[in-house]
Every structure is written in structure tokens, then in C-alpha cells.
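cache lookup: miss for this entity combination. No prior model stored, computing from scratch. Input as submitted by user K.M.:
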Amino acid sequence: MMITFGNVSRYYNNWPALENIDLQVHPGEFLVVSGPSGAGKTTLFRHIWMGDLPSTGTVEVAGYRSDRIRKSDLPFLRRKLGIVFQDFRLLPERTVFDNVALPLQVAGTSPKAIRRRVFALLAEMELNHRRGSYPHELSGGEQQRVAIARAMVAHPVILLADEPTGNLDPEVSRMVIDLLIEINRSGTAVILATHDPRQVPAGTARFLYLDRGHLVNPGVWDGYRQL
Amino acid sequence: MIHLIRNAIHEGLLNIRRKLGSFLITLLMVSLSFMVFDIFLIISWNLGTALKDEQENVGIELFLSDNITEVQAVILADIVSGMEGVRSVYYVSPEEAEAVFRADLPEQADLLTLLGPQFHLPPSIQISLHPDYRTSEKVGGLARTVSGMDGVEDIVYGKEYLPGLTRAVDILEKLVILAGLVLAVSLSLVVANTVRLAVARRALTVQIMSIVGAPGWFVRVPFLGEGMLTGVAGAAGSLLLTLAVSWMLSSSLPHDFLPGKWIMLVLILGASSGAAGSWMGMKSGIPKPRS
């Protein structure tokens, strides 16, 4: 199992951001988590990259357990993950190349290997001509593709995409979703948080609905039917 | 690991290059803050030096009776030279005293001629003291001891000005330490806060680095390095600015610039306050992995 949530609850001042969550994600799976704002999608993601830890229960991600993980283990866990945010979170003072290269630089990859990998990935994502540009010079869609490239550059086993289409128009959103499907087909597990699960074609993913910190009808909902 | 260290250093240099404008403003603020400290140090140093020079001249002069022979005077000088706190003694014969009088006060040399060949200045013993014994209390104690010795007619040791001088040196030393500490602490806080704000502006960089799997030290080292560099460069800049001001004032107000050891102190203070600022900035900028 790639990710396991075992009866996880997370309370902030007695308010349940997540409650009694049981969840398993298999290697190479595409999971779509949807729900309204404040449902707990981002909190769920934070527990996966262990930016937050459960109040009760345990989370296990790629062999790291939330109740045993040490601070010094966190970088190693996070190198197995790629994370994409709604607001892209690109570093504004760095070029596209430098933004994408960052995860490799912090992992101690040699400059030669970094150049090779980043050039190949930018070419694959049709961003090579933009490698010297700064984020503010890019369109929203291009910025999100750069963010996805940064998330994928170190060959993560899981890609977390937290509302990646939230700031994009429908056409660009579709392209981003297609890109995530493509990434998933290459073997990377993808977990997508979205307001609108219908962006993802039926049959390509497993759908979960989160509401006020609870999973609603887990294993039943197909992402299309009204709950 | 080598690549990781290399990348961390590279990252630190890039941080500075990318935010050169903000780095220079921070540097200027640090330099101006340190200038206050530098000027305080220069005033303290020069005042201290002047008082120490004055103290250097503190000694005792024993005037001997006219009927004492040179042999007796030398024996007396030997006894005094063995006393605690005495660094050296020097016997001044009547002839030498007259020669010194004529050299130091040529306009009053006629006075000696008027008094006739029977008159001669009294012989004396000049006592030089160890630095620790140049306080009014210790000089007074020694003066009382030697004044009771046979053949000693009179004694001079700056009884009037010595207590004031001793007190002034004492107060200055305490003032320098106290005011220096207060100034150093407040200055460090100003510098640290300036660097902290500069670092906190890059909270996103810190957060993203942490999320993409940077080890803690990889995130911290460039910021600490940058903080230390800002502190040292700011302190060095303040020294250069102060040197320029000192040079401009040197003709109208003669003074010395800071000695090497004090310059090092300013640079070390700069480095440590810069590092402290970075550390505080990181504390507020790095997202906590656990809550």
C-alpha cells in the first residue's frame, strides 16, 4: 500500500478538520478527492506530506509512519512526493529552469544530471522555450505546467495535486487534467483534490467525497452522481 | 553530499544576487546602526587613552634632607626599590636637579645665581610605580611609608589630583562596559531584526524548499551565511564610514582610530548579530512540520 490512513482524526481547537478517516491508496492509482471548501481536502494532503500530524490514528506514506517519523526523515519522505498547489507556488525570483531544478538541487544531484533531467522534462512538457522566463512572464496554464514539472522532476512515486485547476480557465484546466492522467499512466500514483470531480473522465480514477472532515459513502460514489 | 553542500553555498550566493537591492538596503541599515557603536567606541578609546597617559605619569618624588650623603641616598633608594608596587627608582643629585631646573625653567635660572653658590637644590629620589599601584589609595599608602624614613624631608605625589584621576578612570571603565553592553545588545537586536525581516520576506522560498525535501541544514545554511555576511559587511561598512568621518575631523579634533582588537570586536558582533537575525527570521519563516 502506498498510503494508509488508519482511523485518522485531526482537531484544531476541538474542531474536527478530519474525523475517523480510513483510506488506502495503491501504487499507481489515480484518486480524486472532492468536496466543498473547508471539507478537509488540504488537511488530508498536509497529512500525506506530513506537514501536519493526526491528533489520533496513524498515517503511513511510502513506508513512513506518522507516529514514528523523525524530523530528519521528513526530507526523505517528501522527495518521494511531488506536490502541486492551486496558487502554483513558483519562486518568483527564479527562472523556469531553476524552479524545476529545485527538488534535484536539494537532493544533492550533480549539476550535469540536473541539466539533463530538467531539459528533458521541459521538452516533454513543451516548456523548453520558456526555460529562461520568470513565473510572472508566463500564463496561468504555463505556470501550472511548470509547477507540475517541478513536482515530477525527481521521479516521485506519488503526485499530490491540490486544486491545480482552481485558478485556470476550463480549456487550460482540461489540459492540466490530461497531463495528470498521462503522468498516472506512466505509473505515478496521483491524488487530485478538486471542487469539480467531473473534470476527470469516468473510469480513469477512484473518487472520494469529503464533507466537514468525513468521507461520504467511501467506495460507492463514482464522482458523477449527486450525493 | 558534495553536490548538496555545493548547492547550498550556490543557493546562498543566489539569494544575495537575486535580492541585491534589498540586500544593499539591509547592509546600509546595519552599517548606519553600527556607526553609532563605532563612534561610542572611538570616544571611549580616546578618553581612556588620555586618562591612562595621565595615570602613566603617576609616581612619587622624595625630597631628601640637605645633609644626606650620596651614599646614604643610594642606600635609601635601594630600600625603596625593594618595596611592593615600586617599579624603579632614580636618584637625582643636587647637581642634576639644578641642571634640570635650568633646562625646564630657563627664564627662572637667574634665581639660582641670585641665591649664591652656597644654595643648592635638594637631592631627591623619583619612584616609578607598577600600573596596578597608580591609584590614589595605593600611592597614598606607599607615600606614608616612605615619608617616615630617615633622611626624607618632603614628599610629592599628586595628592590633590590623584583621587579625581583614579575615580575618573574607574568610572570610565565601568561606563564603557555598561554602556557598551547596552549599546551592543540593542544594536544586535536592531541588526538581528533587520536581517530577520529580510529573511522573512523569503518565507515562500523556505516553505517550498522544505516541501520539496530539502534537509533542514540546506535551508538554514544559506540564510545563516547570508545573515552573517550581512552583519560582517555591515560592520565593516560602518567602520569605513566612521574612518571617513574620523579622517575629516582629525585636523580639528585630534584623536586615534580604533585599535585592531576593537575592530575585530565590531566585526565579530556584526557576524553574531547577523547570524542571530537569520536564525530568528528562519524561526518565523519556516513552516513547522508538526503542530
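stored under new cache key. Strands of chain B lie at 59-64, 86-92, 124-129, 152-156.
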